[in-house]
Amino acid sequence: MACSYVAGQRLQREIRTLLQREQLLPDDFRESLRAVVSPTGEPLLSFQLLRKLHSFLQESGSPVYLHELLEGSQIYLPKVEKPPRNPELVTRLEKIKAKLANDEYKRITRNINCQELNRYGTLADFGRQVKSMKAVAITIFNFIVTVAAAFVCTYLGSQYYFTEIAARVLSSVIVASVVGLAELYVLVRTMEGELGELE
Predict the structure, then answer these.
(1) What would the pLDDT profile of 145-184 be if each residue is shown by its tens digit?
(2) Pairing, β 44-46 against β 116-118
(3) Torsion sign, CA atoms 116, 119, 125, 128
(4) 15, 44 contact by CB (below 8 A)
(5) φ and ψ at residue 76, rounded to 5 degrees
(6) Rounded Cα–Cα distance for residues 185 and 9 (Å)
(7) Considering Cα of 123, then 129, then 130, then 135, what sign does the dihedral take?
(8) Is 44 helix (H, G, I), strand (E, B) or coil?
(9) Quick one: 36 exposed, middle or buried, by C-beta within 10 A (0-12, 13-18, 19+)?
(10) Are 142 and 186 within 8 A, CB to CB?
């Protein structure tokens, strides 16, 4: 809390003039004023001493006003020293800060899955997709082999019925088409069942 002034040049000059001129100053007042203008210390003037000086100057008939005296002076604000912190309190605060930071981290990262391969899904989804692609590839390969086998079997078996090659090829294409359509029917029914299970 402020309780004194740092005396400016004008105030110090007035005090020096007063000390040289006035012989009727009380001894304690004179010593207090000398302490303010001494070259060794900081020129601090308490509020009480300033009141005494102002009233003395008014009684002696000086034409100087208080605001003129305080021109260039500043209020002295002593430095506030903070008390040392309690070590137990510091450790508790550090624990609380660490806990809050951990909770914040968990809240931010709760939607993140470390299993994710990319933004399209997790590794498990990728595995299912590979299995699905493998099943599709096997199905297509099975379809092609079945149709080709039906064509070859019909072509070789029809040599006993037909002597012309055109008739043998035509009968083989017809049988391969029927087998292919039957295979497609079974494939569509199977896919329909799998899609129904997924839903």
Answers:
(1) 999 999 999 999 988 888 899 999 999 999 999 999 999 9
(2) unpaired
(3) negative
(4) no
(5) -85, 120
(6) 110
(7) positive
(8) strand
(9) buried
(10) no
